[in-house]
Give the backbone structure.
Amino acid sequence: MAVMSYIDAVTMALREEMERDQSVFILGEDVGKKGGVFKATAGLYEQFGESRVLDTPLAESAIAGVAIGAAMVGKRPVAEMQFADFIMPAVNQIISEAAKIRYRSNNDWNCPLVIRAPYGGGIHGALYHSQSVEAIFANQPGLKIVMPSTPYDVKGLLKAAIRDDDPVLFFEHKKAYRLIKGDVPEEDYELPIGKADVKRKGEDITVITYGLCVHFALQAAEKLAKDGIEAEVVDLRTVYPLDKEAIIESASKTGKVLLVTEDNKEGSIISEVAAIIAEHCLFDLDAPIQRLAGPDVPAMPYAPTMEKYFMMNPEKVEKAMRELAEF
Amino acid sequence: MENRHEKIGLTDETVRKMYETMLLARRLDERMWLLNRSGKIPFVVSGQGQEAAQVGAAFALDRNQDYILPYYRDAAVVLAFGMTVKDLMLAAFAKAEDPNSGGRQMPGHFGQKKNRIVTGSSPVTTQVPHAVGIALAAKMDKKEYVSFVTFGEGSSNQGDFHEGANFAGVHKLPVIFLCENNQYAISVPADKQLASVKVSDRAIGYGMPGYTIDGNDPIEVYRYVQEAADRARRGEGPTLIETMMYRLTPHTSDDDDRSYREMEEVEKAKLSDPLLTFRKYVKETGVLTDEQEQQMEHAIQQIINEATDYAEQAPYPRQEQTLDFVYAEKEQGGAV
Amino acid sequence: MAIQRVTMPKLGESVTEGTITKWLVKVGDYVNKYDPIAEVLTDKVNAEIPSSFTGVIQDIIAKEDETLSVDDVICTINTEEIAEVVEKQEETVQPAAAVSTDHRARYSPAVLKLSQQNGIDLSNVKGTGKGGRITRKDIQALIDAGVQTKQQTKSQQDVVRTNGGDTIIPLDGIRQTVAANMVRTKQEVPHAWMMIEVDVTKLVQYRDSIKQPFKENEGFNITYFAFFVKAVARALKEFPEMNAMWAGDHIVRKKEINISIAVAADEKLFVPVVKQADEKSVKGIARDVNDLAKKARSGSLRQEDVTGGTFTVNNTGSFGSVQSMGIINYPQAAILQVESIVKRPVIIDGMIAVRDMVNLCLSLDHRVLDGLICGRFMNRVKELLENASEETLPVY
């Protein structure tokens, strides 16, 4: 067991999967010699060569589309979108093609593809290097969307994504890359896609979130614990399809639920979580379902004041948790 | 008439088979229109006038290993690659047994893994990057196959065409890009679609040879596609071939082409209908006798009749099958 | 003069720390603003850090090859300049509206559910939530502490004092269950009550005329009660609203008409069920009642004999009662008590006549039913009974 950063867990999972399975290959912009703009693929070009760590032309739809083609004939491509913000040109390929290939061919064809992309703000990335794009894809049956919070989860879930027989979008929080460190076992392991994880047990309130916000909630929970408030923190890990069972279980247990995302509030992942709770847990609710999210403006601005206003942080989460506990 | 097929190594038998496939595609297409107009099938998208290029190209490929990514008018291509009339008829009637999609997609959305016919969608040209990806897999795994992808001249304006062609050019991948230039993208003529004179002019930008050829001549198309396939297998990269033809029918069964083109133009084009011109060729070169032709027509009629009856009586998918195959089905009794 | 602090800069979008690989200045050196002062290595770049100030290096804090977090101080510089005024933006905090709202009577679904399940009277609970709101945790704490039960037991023990010679009878399981059900029903169900008078002279004549031959042929008695059950079952078929149950957030109208009947045996109360009473003849009902009563007395009732009831008919008349208020058999919507048949003078067409009269008393769950529908139902029962004859209520 070694302590490593979130991004090193990405690299480790990629390396191990490429060593394990010849059909796994990486393609994307700057993923080869440079090892990626964030260094997520560092060292892989040297180890596996140009043919398996492919620097592509700067054209996102082709990256996705070529990966889809290769996946359909048995390869296991891992495509990198340099920033989640730049996935937009590839949306047609992802939604019209990857998501529907199995369904439209009546199970004749399938598309075992992983698309990795760094998302999220708080890094002075402004409008086009800070976005959370998961909600765009989260009403597309056929896709799976994984958003891990810890290095341990990164490794187990990225391996599961690569081995999955359907397309998986794997969004990594770029602020977490070097900020979040944790134990990662050296051995091979997979974590189940579609399963949430209770990162902290508690009886008083439930916080349901994912990605970097999990850490904000955990930090806030420790502070609240000093005042005798025990918060349960549920890490969705897979934001589509959602783990309804885990959501219902925790919401019913405490009756007070705070949902947190860094994304814009309306139509976000947590809106769907709120709907699930409303449908299933009415008679167990002890307070209105609370959503804490970014403001409904197009994206995160550059100026530090505005970025701070938009960006989620432990203080905002703590305040919302405290208010809910006191309700 | 000069025998041109012997020069490029085509036997009479193969040429007769090519004509038969064209004729089969045409008669099937005509039947689809009848079924539509009698209210039995909701939709037809037609390939009439494009059979020569489709058959010429398909016969030039290795139909035992190459992958094809057809677009919606390519019934003749998929017939040449092993899909049956019955399969296509089942798709037209949206029946459970349809191998393309199990009754999920509209007709013309071909796909059949066992024959390496890659499943397609309706947004145009998305299949081009897929063809490139399949070719990339061939190169990575050092396999011999090529991928063959078709699209219309209107579709050659899509970003996916340009992104895919460039990718294939950069990585010298074994892809054949075949444009079926039938002069119309629904109602908009080619001169309103293309700033360049020819689609093939675009090839140079992506580091590959580009040709514009007579799409009404299956022998000519065969020659070019065969050469492109050889190049691809030699590792020399992709080729763009633009085949010139004319769409003899409206865009689909829901389209009335009288609103945007003169019927005289259509009538004129029918004079060079490839089925007529190629029929003349096979008759005059002695590849096909009158008697053989009669037998051929009769046999085709019978195949289509049987397929129509079969498909019409075949069961629809059950309602609850709507829910199947969103993701890989978990094995029975498998762990969560 | 001012001492300024130089911090580890953030050299990349995901970078959180950096390592000084080499200092390019030493303490006492004079540096101009933007002069390089150190080489730094981060995960993403290798760069020189420029000085942010003009002045003399006062102190070098970061050691070479030491990894520091972004914003940690790496050195200080003694400057001639006036300290830069770092504009600290006042964070505008909207003061929360200081309106004290009383939320004591605003109950969440969770609180209502828990309190109902545990028979807790919310008016006695002190809330700890916002505005005095009772929270789920408040109720849970009461349940966990067993407060409710203790309070009840205590108060009752206080009231009931035993003197010498009094007998204390311990509660057996059945008595406890009956007691709990009765308490629950009486507390939870808003009972309403209604009584009608029925002239059963014809029924009495009819029954008396067949009593003897029936006994001879069938081997058991044909009771009045069977006719009452039959009449009720028939009326229930016409008024399905009565054959219903309260289910918290909805009402369930039952399809089957299964009549619960009360049978007392050895100080125990059993409530077996005549299944599908609407489909049975008077004789069939009489046989069921006879069999169920036998089973009750011999203690051989089975689970299926006592479950599935949708409406209760209670033969209170057998104890000589002429008027009573039944407690509804939970979760049914109503119970009908058949009182004693007595001969009374009544006025018919201006003349006094002696008639066989009976009172029928109905207790109803007012959440499910109201007076109008019950009145109609009772009148239908009355009509059926008053016109009872070989033709209208045949035994077979």
About this structure: Residues 12-37 of chain B form the longest helix (26 residues). Chain B has one domain: 6-323. The first strand of chain B starts at residue 67 and ends at 69.
